[in-house]
Amino acid sequence: MGWIHKTNVVGTLNMLGLAKRVGARFLLTSTSEVYGDPLQHPQVETYWGNVNPIGVRSCYDEGKRTAETLTMDYHRSLGIEVRIARIFNTYGPRMCIDDGRVVSNFVAQALRKEPMTVYGDGKQTRSFQYVSDLVEGLIRLMEGDHVGPFNLGNPGEFTMLELAEVVQEAIDPNAKIEFKPNTEDDPHKRKPDISKAKQLLGWEPTISLRKGLPLMVNDFRQRIFGNPKTVLVGGGATA
């Protein structure tokens, strides 16, 4: 998995160099994974995290942490305009159907009449934001005067079992759940404190999971089973 770390580090260096040459403002899309398996809940931007540097997930976690370090170094030493967003779990139409993320996994499995795979006891939590809320946050960040980092996420917190129940509501109340052993270094909880974004960017998410998930389900259903007469527009509504 070294290519993940290389992409985050070398790729960020390449883009920072380009931003320096052309005088561009640079956006680093970082991640809530920089907090690791947090001991502070919810997570604020001043929290340094609890990351295992040699774990199976560390190539991504540490790659993003290094990318943040490089971005701030270029900002301080070379005066490059930068913005840093720490993005929490995001979902919505046009996601890759089989990308391995939990929302896309559950939706695709339920639509295909397969059991939804829950790892561990399902009590670990995540916070899920709809894609258009994230886009609005990124626009406000890039158009504003504050470097960051900023948490961009929906503070609504769900266990994996609660997420599975929401998917059942949207697709099939009888959809099955299959439990499997938990993955190594899986964070127990994750929830953003977005006070900084609310105060300095005037941003907070507006679309709840129960409102946004059906739009994603419609998109997945069309792509899995095929419906060429239906076209996605705007935030995911159909026309």
Automatic annotation (TrEMBL):
Q: Which organism is it from?
A: Hibiscus syriacus
Q: What is this protein called?
A: UDP-glucuronate decarboxylase
Per the record, the pathway is: Nucleotide-sugar biosynthesis; UDP-alpha-D-xylose biosynthesis; UDP-alpha-D-xylose from UDP-alpha-D-glucuronate: step 1/1
Q: Which Pfam families match?
A: GDP_Man_Dehyd
The family note in this entry says:
Belongs to the NAD(P)-dependent epimerase/dehydratase family. UDP-glucuronic acid decarboxylase subfamily.
Q: Which SUPFAM superfamilies match?
A: NAD(P)-binding Rossmann-fold domains (SSF51735)
Under the heading InterPro entries, the entry gives: NAD(P)-bd_dom, NAD(P)-bd_dom_sf, UXS-like
Lineage runs:
Eukaryota, Viridiplantae, Streptophyta, Embryophyta, Tracheophyta
Question: For this chain's UniProt record, which GO biological process terms are given?
Answer: D-xylose metabolic process; UDP-D-xylose biosynthetic process
Write the Enzyme Commission number(s) for this entry.
4.1.1.35
Cellular component (GO) terms are: cytoplasm
